[in-house]
Amino acid sequence: MKLAVITHILHKQKNEEYYSYEPYIREMNLWFKYASDVIIVAPLSKDSITKIESKYLKDTISFKTIPQISFLSFLMTLKSFLNMPFIVFRILNAMNAADHIHLRSPGNIGLIGCILQIFFPKKPKTVKYAGNWDPNAAQPWSYKWQKKILSNARLSKNIKVLVYGEWDGQTKNIVPFFTASFSKTEKINSIKKITSPYKFVFVGTLNEGKRPFFTIKLIENLLKMRIPVSLEMYGNGVMKQELEEYITINNLDPFIKLMGNQNLKIVKKAYCNSHFLILASKSEGWPKAIAEAMYFGCIPIATNISCVDWMLDYGKRGILIEPDVESATRMIEDKLSDIAKLQEMSVNAMEWSQQYTLEYFDEAIKSVIKI
Questions:
Q1: The CATH number of the domain where 7 resides is what?
Q2: Does 371 score more than 70 pLDDT?
Q3: Most buried among 30, 161, 214, 240, by the most CB within 10 A?
Q4: Mean pLDDT of 66-87
Q5: pTM of the full structure
Q6: Domain that holds residue 129
Q7: DSSP E strands: which ranges in the chain?
Q8: Three-state SS at 252
């Protein structure tokens, strides 16, 4: 089977091998097991490969480079429209040559792919919608268009749209799905002891969407209340410098450490050594860090977005907070007063997350790629 992958994910090349963000590559290597040949249509960067990127394992990959597109400024918009005929041509060629079409959505390239797949009604198709499928969520217009096109069974035929969470009122095209990071061989059976000093971890990009300042101020508040806590923050981003300055100015260096981008092996160790994960995101699809932390009994503290409330079983497998530092501080203070309840929460989180192994994920992919 020849598989065509249409994605906005930025790639890098070293010799004849292609690299990208490690969680994405890890997943796509599972998809590629069921294809004899692969066509990838995606942007390509000349930047150096980083420690959070890995390579495709498939040898038979035909990579078709397309420009990145953006509509954030007039100049970017003009350039994107000028590049559009070439992008459409490359995507149509790949779709025409494929036995199975796989789209990565949402995103601007995803929108183009969603429109063009309409012209291939007889070809089997899958779409991995990695964003928030919540029908009531405030989202960019391009995301809303993609959701409408993909949900419409008259426009999108012979297709399975894989979304995070279970939502009422969906069409036959929509299939609840998940993702996974760890093998069943990495399961731990020991119960994590929730004891003082309490260790917190943050894993994500240091940008406004992940609210890293919220996380730091939450830890600062707990310290002011003389609750012994510490925080390790994994990830880089545009806010790194101002976060470093805030930590230094407020004498938080002994308690809060910025660890930068690290590979999954190091992040896994952080999950195992931490009691709590904080992720107060503004938007998520399937929040990978939450599921990963839960796998090792690390209790998630998260805002109620996308399918997070379902993942946390409405408070039985984690702590749901409002995006208000004072409110969240009081919530955590209250939860820390009942350690037995937190121990139960940790076990519940671990048992639930450990259902979603890479092996189970592999079987799920196998079932949907053969429509």
A1: 3.40.50.2000
A2: no
A3: 161
A4: 91
A5: 0.91
A6: 2-180+358-369
A7: 2-6, 11-14, 17-21, 37-42, 44-45, 53-55, 61-65, 100-105, 125-129, 159-164, 174-177, 198-203, 229-234, 256-260, 276-279, 299-303, 319-321
A8: coil
